[in-house]
Design a protein that fits this description.
The protein is α+β, with helices and mostly antiparallel strands and 218 residues long. Helix content is 32%, strand content 35%. The strands form two sheets. A ten-stranded antiparallel beta sheet has the order 1-2-5-6-7-8-9-10-11-12, with no helix packed on it. A two-stranded antiparallel ribbon has the order 3-4. The mean pLDDT is 80.
Length: 218
């Protein structure tokens, strides 16, 4: 016959076994609950560790057909107009937009010369430009082939031009002393590298015929 002390010890042993089993069960349930959350926890940790800055020399964005529609670059390629490559004549960095044929239609660029500009193109070439110089001066130009309207402000003062056939037919305000303008100085300095007719053509795209003749007369 079991005495009272032995019975008490037996009950205590059973209680410890039940307590241990309950603890193991709780650990198992808790582990299953946490495992369902581990993927989201891992993603959050990955997001926290992902870099905030991305350094690349060029980034191209393509459409569903694989055609480049946006290009961001530190050294951009030459322009593509009507399926042909046209040299820019200067190094360029910035953003270029392309249409669904891969032809350039717009750019927001900085150039090696120090100019910065926003350009809009059609399938024949640039049709609108908004440019700013490295230190001062700016120009907005809208044109159709050889005809254009131009608003300009530079060392020679503000002016409005209308061009037909690449020649200025309207210039306001008139140039009082064309021989003292920065344009005239640049043309005279280029005499050793170009003919008079070439200089006149360049001048006629910026000012009146009378001002060009007076500038290059000497």
């Amino acid at each position: 016959m079991v005495n009272e002390k032995s019975y008490v010890k037996l009950l205590e042993r059973r209680n410890r076994l039940l307590l241990g089993s309950n603890v193991l069960l709780m650990v198992f349930v808790l582990a299953n609950a946490l495992s369902a959350r581990w993927p989201s926890i891992a993603i959050s940790a990955q997001e926290r560790e992902s870099p905030k800055n991305l350094t690349v020399s060029e980034l191209s964005i393509v459409d569903a057909k694989g055609t480049v529609r946006v290009r961001i670059g530190g050294q951009l390629p030459d322009a593509i107009v009507d399926g042909k490559v046209h040299p820019r004549g200067d190094s360029a960095s910035g953003v270029i937009l392309y249409d669904d044929t891969g032809e350039e239609r717009s750019g927001y660029l900085t150039f090696g010369s120090g100019n910065v500009g926003l350009t809009l193109d059609n399938h024949e070439g640039q049709t609108a430009e908004f440019l700013a110089g490295p230190k001062a001066g700016s120009v907005m130009r809208l044109h159709w082939r050889d005809d254009a309207v131009e608003l300009r402000t530079d060392e020679d003062g503000p002016s409005v031009h209308v061009l037909q056939g690449k020649r200025v037919v309207f210039h306001e305000p008139p140039v009082a002393h064309p021989e003292t303008t920065e344009l005239c100085k640049a043309l005279r300095e280029a005499r050793s590298r170009a003919t008079k007719e070439q200089l006149l053509d360049a001048c006629r795209s910026r000012t009146s015929e009378a001002a060009c003749e007076l500038c290059l007369a000497k």
